[in-house]
Amino acid sequence: MPVRVTLDELIVRKGLKARDLAREVGLSETQLSLFRSGKVKGIRFRTLARLCAALDCRPGDLLDYAFDPTDLETADEE
Q1: CB atoms near residue 32 (< 10 Å)
Q2: Rounded distance, CA 17 to CA 11, Å?
Q3: pLDDT in tens, 15-66
Q4: Which residues contact 19 (CB under 8 A, 6 or more apart)?
Q5: What is the distance between the alpha carbons of residues 36 and 7, in angstroms, rounded to a whole number?
Q6: Which one, of 17, 37, 40, 19, lies nearest residue 28 by Cα?
Q7: 78, pLDDT greater than 80
Q8: Which residues contact 2 (CB under 8 A, 6 or more apart)?
Q9: By the 8 A CB rule, do 29 and 22 touch?
Q10: Distance (Å) of CA 10 to CA 40, 50, 67, 68
Q11: Cα–Cα separations (whole angstroms), residue 4 to 19, 30, 76
């Protein structure tokens, strides 16, 4: 998948523990772990905003994208 979650890198750079971040943001450790691993299909904007506030960052600091031309295909082209 071309969209990659970079939250782990930010957690390490800030010297935080995922457990403490989950508590501050109001997520379970399991929910945060699923997001960190990229195993979720989406995230609520409110949760994204809370993560950004807690980490003093922007949404682009939590996600990365590697261009894939197939992302521009419509469902009937697949």
Answers
A1: 20
A2: 7
A3: 999 999 999 999 999 999 999 998 988 899 999 999 999 999 999 999 999 9
A4: 29
A5: 6
A6: 19
A7: no
A8: 65, 66, 67, 68, 71
A9: yes
A10: 18, 15, 22, 24
A11: 21, 18, 25
Q: How far apart are CA 22 and CA 19, in angstroms?
A: 5
> Per the structure block, which two tokens stand in for 21?
């971040």
Residue in the block written with tokens 């905003």: 49
CA separation for the pair 51, 7 (Å, rounded): 9
Q: Which token pair is 23?
A: 């508590």
Asked if 66 and 4 touch (Cβ cutoff 8 Å), the reply is yes
Cα–Cα distance between 39 and 14 in angstroms, integer?
A: 23
